[in-house]
Amino acid sequence: MTLLRDEHLAAAFDHAARSYDTLVAANPGYHAHLRRSARRLGLPRGGEGLRVLDLGCGTGASTGALAEVLPSAEITAVDASAGMLERASAKTWPPNVTFVHAPAERLAEAGVTGPFDAVFAAYLFRNVTDPDAVLRTVHGLLAPGGRLAVHEYTLGGRRTDRAVWTLVCRGVVQPVATLLGDGGLYRHLWRSVVEFDTADRFAHRLEANGFDRVRRLPLPGWQTGITHTFTGRRPTTKETAR
Fold this sequence. Notes:
This is Methyltransferase domain-containing protein. The chain is an alpha/beta fold. It is 44% helix and 20% strand. It is built from nine helices and seven strands. β4, α5 and β5 (142-153) form a beta-alpha-beta unit. The radius of gyration is 17 Å and the shape is globular. The mean pLDDT is 95.
């Protein structure tokens, strides 16, 4: 199958929204890993006085991680899928969390404007048509010195990484998703990962789009070599001028 993109991918997520949290719950460490990535932003004082953008929030798992790690931050959570966003916004949230329906490519049209002190993006970049364009948008939304954390399926480059990913997808995820009527989305999931950047390549992509202090950090458990946190920063104006 070809990869799903733009409105076709959003429609697939709309359809899958009803069962998405059930599948996520079957993934060991899913929520703990998101919280770990949120902590890797390294923001002080629980986010007090800071604005954080959750880009590609889905049904709110990443938003929940941010709200737990940064309870005092102003969190704006955005997703392109109306179905996923409906599920997310129906949950109970503190007043400092706001949801916005918008694709990552058209944030300004939806009124999402910077500066943000941090951007968190979970499972987003392999799903957009032009990841470089979205990274440039994120760079522009961040305040000078603002931080980025990307939590993403990016294979480490070993044959065993791809083999484990394929085994999990084809042996567990895809059969269950097919029974739920969402097989196409989860076949896309497998292919989107194997055709996307390796972890090293994505780290270089961040640097090429203006981020400094880029780090590639592994996650534990079965996802070692499959899922990584990437952190980076928009340089300050003074540093850029050097």
